[in-house]
What we know:
Layout: H1 3-10, E1 13-15, E2 20-25, E3 28-35, E4 38-44, H2 50-62, E5 70-73, H3 75-78, E6 85-92, H4 98-115, E7 134-138, E8 141-145, H5 147-167, H6 170-195, H7 205-216, H8 223-253, H9 259-267, H10 269-293, H11 295-298, H12 302-314, E9 317-318
Helix pairs in contact: 2-4, 5-12, 6-7, 6-8, 7-8, 8-9, 8-10
Amino acid sequence: MTREEMLQLTGxxxxxxxxxxxxxxxxxxxxxxxQKNALVxxxxxxxxxxxxxxxxxxxxxxxxxxxxxxxxxxxxxxxxGVTGAFIAATINVKGExxxxxxxxxxxxxxxxLRQEGLNPPQQCPxxxxxxxxxxxxxxxxxxxxxxxCLRSWKNERQEALEQKVQNGSHLRGILGGxxxxxxxxxPAFIALNLTEYFVxxxxxxxxxxxxxxxxxFGGKLDMVTTLFVIVYSLIVxxxxxxxxxxxxxxxxxxxxxxxxxxIEAYLDPHLFREIFMRSTLMALGFSALGIFLAWGMIRxxxxxxxEDNQKAFDEAIALSQLTNDR
Length: 326
Protein backbone atom coordinates (compact mmCIF):
# COMPACT_ATOMS: atom_id res chain seq x y z
CA MET A 1 0.00 0.00 0.00
CA THR A 2 1.34 3.42 -0.97
CA ARG A 3 1.59 6.30 1.48
CA GLU A 4 -1.09 8.17 -0.42
CA GLU A 5 -3.44 5.21 -0.05
CA MET A 6 -2.72 5.00 3.68
CA LEU A 7 -3.60 8.66 4.12
CA GLN A 8 -6.80 8.16 2.15
CA LEU A 9 -7.93 5.65 4.79
CA THR A 10 -8.19 8.46 7.32
CA GLY A 11 -10.24 10.79 5.17
CA UNK A 12 -8.02 13.60 6.43
CA UNK A 13 -7.41 16.70 4.36
CA UNK A 14 -3.94 16.65 2.72
CA UNK A 15 -1.56 19.46 3.70
CA UNK A 16 1.73 20.70 2.33
CA UNK A 17 2.75 18.51 -0.58
CA UNK A 18 0.19 15.89 0.36
CA UNK A 19 2.57 13.79 2.45
CA UNK A 20 0.55 14.38 5.65
CA UNK A 21 -3.13 14.77 6.40
CA UNK A 22 -5.02 16.70 9.09
CA UNK A 23 -8.43 16.19 10.58
CA UNK A 24 -10.33 15.33 13.75
CA UNK A 25 -10.22 11.92 15.43
CA UNK A 26 -12.56 11.39 18.39
CA UNK A 27 -12.66 15.21 18.58
CA UNK A 28 -8.85 15.47 18.87
CA UNK A 29 -6.92 17.60 16.36
CA UNK A 30 -4.96 14.88 14.57
CA UNK A 31 -2.23 14.66 11.97
CA UNK A 32 -1.71 11.50 9.94
CA UNK A 33 1.83 10.67 8.85
CA UNK A 34 2.31 7.83 6.37
CA GLN A 35 5.56 5.95 6.90
CA LYS A 36 6.90 2.80 5.28
CA ASN A 37 4.44 0.03 6.21
CA ALA A 38 2.92 2.13 9.00
CA LEU A 39 0.42 4.90 9.58
CA VAL A 40 1.13 7.20 12.54
CA UNK A 41 -1.71 9.23 14.03
CA UNK A 42 -0.56 12.22 16.09
CA UNK A 43 -3.30 13.31 18.48
CA UNK A 44 -2.89 16.73 20.08
CA UNK A 45 -4.04 17.44 23.62
CA UNK A 46 -2.90 17.13 27.22
CA UNK A 47 0.17 14.99 27.87
CA UNK A 48 -0.72 11.55 29.29
CA UNK A 49 1.27 9.84 32.02
CA UNK A 50 3.46 6.84 31.34
CA UNK A 51 0.95 4.72 33.26
CA UNK A 52 -1.88 5.84 30.99
CA UNK A 53 0.11 4.98 27.86
CA UNK A 54 0.94 1.57 29.32
CA UNK A 55 -2.74 0.91 30.07
CA UNK A 56 -3.83 1.94 26.58
CA UNK A 57 -1.25 -0.40 25.03
CA UNK A 58 -2.48 -3.22 27.25
CA UNK A 59 -6.06 -2.68 26.08
CA UNK A 60 -4.91 -2.74 22.47
CA UNK A 61 -2.99 -6.00 23.04
CA UNK A 62 -6.06 -7.65 24.54
CA UNK A 63 -7.81 -7.36 21.18
CA UNK A 64 -6.48 -10.24 19.06
CA UNK A 65 -7.03 -8.24 15.87
CA UNK A 66 -4.73 -5.45 17.07
CA UNK A 67 -2.10 -7.29 19.12
CA UNK A 68 1.41 -6.41 17.86
CA UNK A 69 -0.16 -4.33 15.08
CA UNK A 70 -1.35 -1.19 16.87
CA UNK A 71 0.43 0.63 19.68
CA UNK A 72 0.69 4.05 21.27
CA UNK A 73 3.72 5.96 22.51
CA UNK A 74 4.85 9.46 23.31
CA UNK A 75 5.82 11.46 20.25
CA UNK A 76 9.54 11.68 21.07
CA UNK A 77 9.94 7.98 20.32
CA UNK A 78 7.25 7.44 17.68
CA UNK A 79 7.77 10.62 15.66
CA UNK A 80 11.07 12.34 16.52
CA GLY A 81 11.03 16.08 15.91
CA VAL A 82 7.28 16.42 16.46
CA THR A 83 6.28 18.74 19.28
CA GLY A 84 2.91 19.46 20.80
CA ALA A 85 1.20 16.12 20.16
CA PHE A 86 0.30 14.24 23.31
CA ILE A 87 0.15 10.75 21.87
CA ALA A 88 1.17 8.88 18.73
CA ALA A 89 -0.77 5.81 17.62
CA THR A 90 1.12 3.59 15.17
CA ILE A 91 -0.74 1.17 12.92
CA ASN A 92 1.57 -1.36 11.26
CA VAL A 93 -0.03 -2.34 7.97
CA LYS A 94 2.70 -4.60 6.57
CA GLY A 95 1.08 -7.76 5.27
CA GLU A 96 -2.31 -6.65 6.60
CA UNK A 97 -5.61 -5.53 5.17
CA UNK A 98 -4.90 -1.89 5.99
CA UNK A 99 -8.49 -0.72 5.66
CA UNK A 100 -9.82 -3.47 7.95
CA UNK A 101 -7.04 -2.94 10.50
CA UNK A 102 -7.65 0.80 10.58
CA UNK A 103 -11.39 0.27 10.94
CA UNK A 104 -10.92 -2.22 13.78
CA UNK A 105 -8.37 -0.06 15.61
CA UNK A 106 -10.42 3.13 15.88
CA UNK A 107 -13.18 2.05 18.31
CA UNK A 108 -10.72 0.25 20.59
CA UNK A 109 -8.38 3.24 20.63
CA UNK A 110 -11.23 5.64 21.32
CA UNK A 111 -12.55 3.50 24.17
CA UNK A 112 -9.05 3.28 25.69
CA LEU A 113 -8.56 7.04 25.56
CA ARG A 114 -11.93 7.70 27.16
CA GLN A 115 -11.31 5.07 29.84
CA GLU A 116 -8.08 6.83 30.81
CA GLY A 117 -9.83 10.20 30.98
CA LEU A 118 -8.04 11.66 27.97
CA ASN A 119 -10.36 14.12 26.27
CA PRO A 120 -10.01 16.62 23.39
CA PRO A 121 -9.05 20.23 24.16
CA GLN A 122 -12.12 22.38 24.68
CA GLN A 123 -10.71 25.91 24.40
CA CYS A 124 -9.30 28.10 21.65
CA PRO A 125 -5.64 28.56 22.69
CA UNK A 126 -5.58 32.14 21.38
CA UNK A 127 -8.52 33.64 23.32
CA UNK A 128 -8.79 30.79 25.87
CA UNK A 129 -12.55 30.69 25.38
CA UNK A 130 -14.61 27.55 24.62
CA UNK A 131 -15.22 26.44 21.07
CA UNK A 132 -13.56 26.96 17.74
CA UNK A 133 -14.27 26.56 14.05
CA UNK A 134 -10.84 26.13 12.43
CA UNK A 135 -8.10 23.50 12.56
CA UNK A 136 -4.64 25.05 12.36
CA UNK A 137 -0.99 24.56 13.30
CA UNK A 138 -0.46 27.23 15.98
CA UNK A 139 2.67 27.67 18.09
CA UNK A 140 3.91 24.20 17.18
CA UNK A 141 0.62 22.47 17.95
CA UNK A 142 -2.31 21.35 15.85
CA UNK A 143 -5.34 22.87 17.52
CA UNK A 144 -8.87 24.18 17.07
CA UNK A 145 -9.25 27.96 17.14
CA UNK A 146 -11.77 30.64 16.23
CA UNK A 147 -11.07 31.97 12.74
CA UNK A 148 -11.48 35.55 13.98
CA CYS A 149 -8.87 34.88 16.67
CA LEU A 150 -6.56 33.29 14.12
CA ARG A 151 -6.88 36.19 11.71
CA SER A 152 -6.15 38.73 14.46
CA TRP A 153 -3.20 36.69 15.74
CA LYS A 154 -1.80 36.30 12.24
CA ASN A 155 -2.00 40.03 11.50
CA GLU A 156 -0.43 40.97 14.84
CA ARG A 157 2.32 38.38 14.39
CA GLN A 158 2.97 39.51 10.84
CA GLU A 159 3.26 43.13 11.92
CA ALA A 160 5.60 42.24 14.79
CA LEU A 161 7.83 40.21 12.48
CA GLU A 162 7.97 42.97 9.88
CA GLN A 163 8.89 45.52 12.55
CA LYS A 164 11.55 43.15 13.83
CA VAL A 165 13.04 42.94 10.34
CA GLN A 166 13.14 46.73 10.12
CA ASN A 167 14.45 47.33 13.64
CA GLY A 168 16.71 44.29 14.06
CA SER A 169 20.38 45.01 14.62
CA HIS A 170 23.40 42.86 13.87
CA LEU A 171 25.31 44.73 16.57
CA ARG A 172 22.77 43.83 19.25
CA GLY A 173 22.63 40.30 17.93
CA ILE A 174 26.40 39.88 18.12
CA LEU A 175 26.44 41.24 21.68
CA GLY A 176 23.67 38.84 22.71
CA GLY A 177 25.35 35.97 20.89
CA UNK A 178 28.68 36.64 22.64
CA UNK A 179 27.02 36.55 26.05
CA UNK A 180 24.79 33.61 25.13
CA UNK A 181 27.78 31.54 24.05
CA UNK A 182 29.47 32.16 27.39
CA UNK A 183 26.33 31.14 29.29
CA UNK A 184 25.95 28.04 27.11
CA UNK A 185 29.58 27.06 27.77
CA UNK A 186 29.37 27.28 31.57
CA PRO A 187 27.89 23.77 32.12
CA ALA A 188 30.62 22.15 29.99
CA PHE A 189 33.36 24.11 31.76
CA ILE A 190 32.00 23.28 35.22
CA ALA A 191 31.69 19.60 34.35
CA LEU A 192 35.27 19.47 33.09
CA ASN A 193 36.66 21.11 36.20
CA LEU A 194 34.52 19.54 38.89
CA THR A 195 34.18 16.00 37.58
CA GLU A 196 37.35 15.81 35.48
CA TYR A 197 35.28 14.01 32.84
CA PHE A 198 34.64 15.18 29.31
CA VAL A 199 30.84 15.48 29.17
CA UNK A 200 30.62 16.01 25.43
CA UNK A 201 26.88 16.52 25.19
CA UNK A 202 27.15 19.66 27.30
CA UNK A 203 29.03 21.28 24.41
CA UNK A 204 25.79 20.95 22.44
CA UNK A 205 24.40 23.76 24.62
CA UNK A 206 26.89 26.27 23.23
CA UNK A 207 25.27 26.95 19.82
CA UNK A 208 21.86 27.02 21.49
CA UNK A 209 23.13 29.66 23.89
CA UNK A 210 24.64 31.69 21.07
CA UNK A 211 21.44 31.62 19.01
CA UNK A 212 19.06 32.40 21.86
CA UNK A 213 21.33 35.20 23.04
CA UNK A 214 21.25 36.68 19.54
CA UNK A 215 17.44 36.56 19.47
CA UNK A 216 17.01 37.80 23.04
CA PHE A 217 18.97 40.96 22.27
CA GLY A 218 16.86 41.71 19.20
CA GLY A 219 19.36 40.66 16.57
CA LYS A 220 18.22 40.50 12.97
CA LEU A 221 17.87 36.91 11.82
CA ASP A 222 19.55 36.36 8.46
CA MET A 223 22.55 34.55 6.99
CA VAL A 224 24.86 36.61 9.21
CA THR A 225 23.19 34.98 12.22
CA THR A 226 23.82 31.48 10.91
CA LEU A 227 27.44 32.22 10.08
CA PHE A 228 28.07 33.86 13.46
CA VAL A 229 26.49 30.97 15.40
CA ILE A 230 28.61 28.40 13.55
CA VAL A 231 31.94 30.22 13.84
CA TYR A 232 31.51 31.52 17.38
CA SER A 233 30.21 28.17 18.70
CA LEU A 234 33.36 26.44 17.48
CA ILE A 235 35.53 29.20 18.97
CA VAL A 236 33.80 28.94 22.34
CA UNK A 237 34.04 25.14 22.32
CA UNK A 238 37.78 25.41 21.64
CA UNK A 239 38.21 28.08 24.31
CA UNK A 240 36.48 25.92 26.93
CA UNK A 241 38.98 23.17 26.17
CA UNK A 242 41.92 25.60 26.39
CA UNK A 243 40.64 27.02 29.69
CA UNK A 244 40.34 23.51 31.12
CA UNK A 245 43.90 22.70 30.01
CA UNK A 246 45.11 25.93 31.62
CA UNK A 247 43.52 24.97 34.95
CA UNK A 248 45.12 21.53 34.77
CA UNK A 249 48.56 22.96 33.97
CA UNK A 250 48.25 25.39 36.89
CA UNK A 251 47.52 22.47 39.20
CA UNK A 252 50.60 20.63 37.92
CA UNK A 253 53.15 23.44 37.52
CA UNK A 254 51.77 26.12 39.81
CA UNK A 255 50.00 29.48 39.34
CA UNK A 256 52.89 30.90 37.31
CA UNK A 257 51.44 29.20 34.22
CA UNK A 258 49.46 31.82 32.30
CA UNK A 259 46.66 31.45 29.79
CA UNK A 260 49.05 32.74 27.12
CA UNK A 261 51.49 29.95 28.01
CA UNK A 262 48.69 27.44 27.48
CA ILE A 263 47.77 28.92 24.11
CA GLU A 264 51.42 28.77 23.05
CA ALA A 265 51.49 25.09 24.05
CA TYR A 266 48.47 24.46 21.82
CA LEU A 267 50.28 26.16 18.94
CA ASP A 268 53.28 23.85 19.31
CA PRO A 269 52.62 21.07 16.75
CA HIS A 270 54.38 18.36 18.76
CA LEU A 271 52.69 19.20 22.08
CA PHE A 272 49.33 19.56 20.38
CA ARG A 273 49.52 16.12 18.76
CA GLU A 274 50.80 14.41 21.90
CA ILE A 275 48.65 16.08 24.56
CA PHE A 276 45.82 18.26 23.31
CA MET A 277 44.64 16.95 19.96
CA ARG A 278 42.20 14.29 21.13
CA SER A 279 40.32 16.48 23.62
CA THR A 280 40.34 19.42 21.20
CA LEU A 281 38.79 17.34 18.43
CA MET A 282 36.17 16.08 20.86
CA ALA A 283 35.29 19.62 21.94
CA LEU A 284 34.99 20.81 18.35
CA GLY A 285 33.12 17.65 17.36
CA PHE A 286 30.48 18.00 20.03
CA SER A 287 30.15 21.73 19.32
CA ALA A 288 29.58 20.80 15.68
CA LEU A 289 27.01 18.22 16.81
CA GLY A 290 25.17 20.98 18.64
CA ILE A 291 25.18 23.08 15.47
CA PHE A 292 23.81 20.11 13.53
CA LEU A 293 21.03 19.44 16.07
CA ALA A 294 20.06 23.11 16.15
CA TRP A 295 20.44 23.60 12.41
CA GLY A 296 16.72 23.89 11.72
CA MET A 297 16.60 26.67 14.29
CA ILE A 298 19.75 28.63 13.51
CA ARG A 299 19.21 28.67 9.76
CA UNK A 300 15.72 30.19 10.07
CA UNK A 301 15.73 33.86 9.13
CA UNK A 302 13.15 36.55 9.83
CA UNK A 303 11.98 36.09 6.25
CA UNK A 304 11.42 32.38 6.91
CA UNK A 305 9.36 33.18 10.02
CA UNK A 306 7.15 35.53 8.03
CA GLU A 307 6.66 32.87 5.36
CA ASP A 308 5.91 30.18 7.98
CA ASN A 309 3.39 32.48 9.63
CA GLN A 310 1.58 32.93 6.33
CA LYS A 311 1.83 29.22 5.50
CA ALA A 312 0.18 28.23 8.79
CA PHE A 313 -2.68 30.60 8.05
CA ASP A 314 -3.03 29.34 4.47
CA GLU A 315 -3.16 25.71 5.66
CA ALA A 316 -5.91 26.38 8.21
CA ILE A 317 -8.92 24.10 7.65
CA ALA A 318 -12.50 25.07 8.49
CA LEU A 319 -14.14 22.35 10.60
CA SER A 320 -17.11 22.50 8.24
CA GLN A 321 -14.82 21.04 5.55
CA LEU A 322 -14.01 17.97 7.64
CA THR A 323 -16.09 14.84 7.33
CA ASN A 324 -13.77 12.35 9.01
CA ASP A 325 -14.38 13.02 12.72
CA ARG A 326 -15.10 9.78 14.57
